[in-house]
C-alpha cells in the first residue's frame, strides 16, 4: 500500500457559505489525503453577498498550533494557504512554511484577497502588497486576474486582454519566486472559461478551458485550487491537473444551477465528488 500523503490547509472558516476550509477539507480528503487544518479566522458567513457577518481573527493561535505540531514531529507532503486573517499572518505562515517544508513538500499559495478588480472588505492594500512575500515562498501560486494585478502592483484591466497579455502576466508573476504559476478566470472567447499555467523549469505555458456559465458563483476559486492540488498530489502533470480542476469546477456550477440553489451560498461541490474521484482515477486499494 502506498503511503498516504498529508496536507496542511491554512485557510479561514466561513461557518455558512461553501468556501475556504469547508471546501478544501472535504475535497482534499475525498482525493485521498490526510488533511489537517490551521484556521486563520472564523466568520459567520463568507464576505461575498452577505452583510453583518461576524469576524474573529485567529492570528494568536497560529504560533501555538505550529509549536504543538513541531512537538509531534509532523511531516507534510503539501502546505496549502488561502485567505489570511491579518497582515501579521503573512510572516507567521511564511515561518510555518520554513518550519515544515522538506525537499519533498509542495507549497501552494492561493492569494485569496480580491475579485472583479476589488479587494475583499477585510483586506487592506498593505496586506495585498505583503502577500507577494508569501508567494515568493511557494512552489506554485494560484491567483485570479485581480489578485495578479495587486501582487504585481499593476492596474487591473478587466476583461480587455489578449493572449499575449496573459502570457506576459504569467511570466511577471513567476518573477515573484514560485516555480509554477496558475492564473484563473482566463477567457479568450465568450463561451469558454478556464485557467492558464506557466512552468518556469520547462518554459511551457498551458491552457485549460471548458464551458462558461453566466453569473458569479462564490467559492469556485477554492474549489478550483483544492482540486488542482489534489491532482498534483495524485501525480498528475500540471497541465492535466489544470484541466481536471476546470472540469470539476464546471461540474459543481452546473449542479448548482440545475438544483436552483442560491449562488451566494457557494457551489454544490458535494454531489460532484464522485465525478472528482473518477477524474482522479481513485479506487480502494
TrEMBL record:
Residue ranges of domain Pyridoxamine kinase/Phosphomethylpyrimidine kinase in the record: 73-262
Matching CDD domains: pyridoxal_pyridoxamine_kinase (cd01173)
Transmembrane segments: none
EC number: 2.7.1.35
A GO molecular function held by the record: pyridoxal kinase activity
Alphabetized InterPro entries for the sequence: PM/HMP-P_kinase-1, PyrdxlKinase, Ribokinase-like
Top-tier EC class: transferase
Example of a GO cellular component annotation carried by this entry: cytosol
Keyword field: ATP-binding, Kinase, Nucleotide-binding, Transferase
Record GO biological process: pyridoxal 5'-phosphate salvage
Pfam families found in the cross-reference section: Phos_pyr_kin
The name this protein goes by in its record: pyridoxal kinase
Taxonomic lineage: Bacteria, Bacillati, Bacillota, Clostridia, Eubacteriales
Amino acid at each position: 500500500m502506498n503511503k498516504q500523503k498529508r496536507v496542511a490547509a491554512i485557510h479561514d472558516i466561513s461557518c455558512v457559505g461553501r468556501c475556504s476550509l469547508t471546501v478544501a477539507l472535504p475535497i482534499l480528503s475525498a482525493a485521498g489525503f490526510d488533511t489537517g487544518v490551521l484556521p486563520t479566522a472564523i466568520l459567520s458567513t463568507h464576505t461575498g453577498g452577505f452583510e453583518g457577518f461576524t469576524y474573529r481573527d485567529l492570528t494568536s493561535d497560529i504560533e501555538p498550533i505550529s509549536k504543538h505540531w513541531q512537538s509531534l514531529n509532523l511531516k507534510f507532503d503539501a502546505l496549502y494557504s488561502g485567505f489570511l486573517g491579518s497582515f501579521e499572518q503573512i510572516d507567521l505562515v511564511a515561518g510555518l512554511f520554513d518550519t515544515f517544508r522538506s525537499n519533498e513538500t509542495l507549497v501552494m499559495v492561493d492569494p485569496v484577497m480580491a475579485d472583479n478588480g476589488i479587494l475583499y472588505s477585510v483586506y487592506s492594500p498593505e496586506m495585498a502588497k505583503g502577500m507577494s512575500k508569501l508567494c515568493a515562498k511557494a512552489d506554485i501560486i494560484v491567483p485570479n486576474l485581480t489578485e495578479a494585478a495587486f501582487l504585481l502592483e499593476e492596474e487591473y484591466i478587466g476583461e480587455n486582454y489578449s493572449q499575449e497579455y496573459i502570457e506576459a502576466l504569467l511570466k511577471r508573476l513567476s518573477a515573484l519566486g514560485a516555480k509554477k504559476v496558475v492564473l484563473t478566470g482566463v477567457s479568450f472567447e465568450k463561451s469558454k472559461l478556464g485557467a492558464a499555467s506557466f512552468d518556469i523549469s520547462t518554459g511551457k505555458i498551458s491552457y485549460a478551458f471548458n464551458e462558461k456559465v453566466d453569473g458569479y458563483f462564490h467559492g469556485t476559486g477554492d474549489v478550483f485550487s483544492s482540486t488542482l492540488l489534489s491532482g498534483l498530489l495524485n501525480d498528475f502533470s500540471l497541465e492535466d491537473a489544470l484541466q481536471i480542476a476546470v472540469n470539476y469546477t464546471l461540474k459543481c456550477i452546473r449542479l448548482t444551477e440545475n438544483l436552483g440553489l442560491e449562488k451566494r451560498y457557494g457551489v454544490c461541490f458535494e454531489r460532484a465528488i464522485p465525478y472528482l474521484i473518477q477524474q482522479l482515477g481513485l479506487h480502494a486499494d
